[in-house]
């Protein structure tokens, strides 16, 4: 009987340790700000959406890809003229910005889901499991691409909340045209 109990304990112990590890991770994140990850293909308007959330133009915007690495946006009390950005050895780039919304959350600006460099794609996918909310930006004039669909399928496995932003929806004449786009 004692041997059976020992065998059961040996099988159950790793499961308990895994649950304890998950609980420890959850407890350590309680005091962390919400993590909002902005994703979408390059040139979908992610930086424009982030600037709108921040209430001021802090990030560069353009027709060429402007974000080529994972960029964490965190709050600072410093003036924008004293804005600091740091590059970490793990490939993260952290910018401290005096936008009040960043007191409550960290915004993560990602390279496009269709980036050429595999390292960037890997870094973007690395953050999906840690996300509190995924904001996925879609350019209204282009249907979803294969890379966007692949990224969204990848994201589904983590059961994270996602909000879709249809950027430049004002290029359509009426709500019916937007509805047609969204139904396709």
Structure description:
This protein has two domains: 1-31; 32-183, 3-Layer(aba) Sandwich (Rossmann fold), CATH 3.40.50.300. It starts with a helix and ends with a helix. The mean pLDDT is 77. It is globular. With 184 residues, it is α/β, with parallel strands linked by helices. A hairpin with a 5-residue loop joins strand 3 (84-87) and strand 4 (93-97). It has helices spanning 2-29, 46-54, 118-127, 146-156, 175-183; strands at residues 34-39, 71-75, 84-87, 93-97, 105-109, 133-139, 162-167. It is built from five helices and seven strands. Pfam families: MMR_HSR1 (PF01926). It comes from Glycine max (Soybean). GO terms for molecular function: GTP binding. This is G domain-containing protein.
Features:
2 domains, 184 residues, alpha/beta, 36% helix, 5 helices, P-loop_NTPase, Rossmann fold, 7-stranded mixed beta sheet
